[in-house]
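Q: I have two molecules that I believe assemble together. Could you output structure tokens for the complex as a whole instead of separate predictions?
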Amino acid sequence: MMNEPKRLHPAYILLFVIQAIKGWFPALIVLVVQGNKHPWLWTYAAPFLIGVNVCFGLVGWLRYSYTIEAEQIVIKKGVFFRDEKYISFRRIHTVSIEEPLIQRLFRVVKVKLETPGGGNEADGVIPAITRKEAEELQAALRKEKGSPSSASEEDGTAEIKILPEQTENHRAGARISLGTKDLLIAACTTTHLGIVITAVAGMLSFADDVLPEDVYKSMTSWIIHHLSGFTAIILAIIAGSLLAWVLSILFYIVKFGGYTVEKNGSQISISYGLLNKKQTAFHIHRVQAICVKEGWLRQWLGYAEVEVYVIQSDKKENVILHPFVKKAELAQLFEQFLPQYHESKISDRAPGRGAFYFIRWQLLAVCLVSGLLLLVFGKHAILSLVLIPLDTVWFLFIYRTQGVMLSNEQLAIQTRDLARKTYYVRRPHIQSMTLSATAPIRRKGLLSLSIAVMGKSVSGIRLFEASQLEAVWNWYSRRSSTM
Amino acid sequence: MVRNLANRRHPDAVKLSRISGAIFNGTGIILSLLYLLIAKIFGFTYIPGWIALAVFCMLFILFTWLIPTLSYRRFAYEVFEQEIEIQSGIFFIHNVLVPMIRVQHVEMESGPFMRKYGLAAVTVVTAASRHKISGLKSEDARRLQSQIAILARVKDDDDE
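A: Yes, here they are, computed for all two components at once.
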């Protein structure tokens, strides 16, 4: 085994310096603003700071090492505070290889080793090694990972040996990538609203700062002069949403460009990204749940996004198994990549008689709001009455979308907020199950159900017939089997 | 969930929750009165003071009279060989089912007021959720904790 400590790629030094400069950001602003008045800032202070950071980076690089041992990896780092991490291979459940921009320039990669219960950052991070080294590391991991619990599963190494024969292995080694056309349609049917809003706000304030004042002023005064208030607002809204849409398309393409998912034995690896290339690998048995998400447009076009819930330290990042799959090919996708799950037709819907209880509070709130508006603004607020039927229809729609389906070891739950979401969870991955309702609702024989799954939340379903949900409860309960 | 759960809280838990409700909301009432006093001296508006006073008085009545008995009556739990079921709630009644094999550990805690009444709470922790059984006599809580800990150690064959 290769037991000698290995050093990172020297690109680490640059990464370190950039990281440090980011930390010095407020000082940087001072430098840019005051630099012309006090030339010594440029000539002495800035080079000094950079010099110090380069030195630290260099020493940090010299003292940053990782060692692959028989059953664990040891990561040692730190200049003043030495930090030594021993991570047992058996505890590592996800290895992700990322290529952020700077790493890409040097053709190196960043490796994250995820273990359960880590903090916000991954437990083991190796910021810069060559791809070859990263692959060696992955191979070593796969080889050593003969954990007793997964003895029954076919593991990666065994799979490689028998690859050429048998038809079953055809299934074991699947690979899908997203074509340009699909990527474009996918990009057009999505909106990353949060990011878009911040981008637009940022651009507006940027325009305010950068454009010469008289240009900005004359532009705004031209707009105010030539357009009356109402049209200006409508135009602004249209222009804003168009801009937002285009931005979100660009953002989506940059994020999901070059998307590929591959299956090797029981290991799935996903990679995507044009600028920041990301690669995530996990064992199929680490999947806690699947969420199939169909936005409005996508549902209409017959496409969906498939997210898998894998325990990960980076909780903000969703693991997307397929960003844009045809609904008709979903069953095949499951069979190829996650054979323990299967797509199920959801036939058990929310009963009609719960609808009133589902919408009553929302309805009351809307009635109050529009009543208040009428009271304050009189006739002008008459349009707000439209909200009442709209709200009713919308919540009825949400209520009727809810569904539940049991099949063997799998529970499927369908809900809607804006997009329709179908969750697939296997019984062993449900950590706990809750039935709830107020006493009067219970007396009417209606109940709500929610489940807890590791890593992320699964939305519950509300106001079903008690008998429907008791079937789920009994399926989950282990008591019946012992009696 | 149709089954009746055998165990309940200790009746002392009602007393305790009355007292803690009285202390919390009583403090609120005193603070609102204090605000009214300050407002009188400095000539601030009285409105927030009156609103807070009204709210705290209402909560005082609710939390010393109605809610403790209700939540006592609603609360029930039972430990089975392979799972725990807990029923709780005041207006919304929740029934939670936690399989033994999903239990990661069991915590026991008791605050100063709880200790005065010899009460303690047991929290069952899974990888994704926490479930509290409170208002138990300390010795019962300890027994429950070790019982669950022992049962949780047994492996279930349907774990993959």
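A: One point stands out. Chain B has two domains: 12-72, 76-153.
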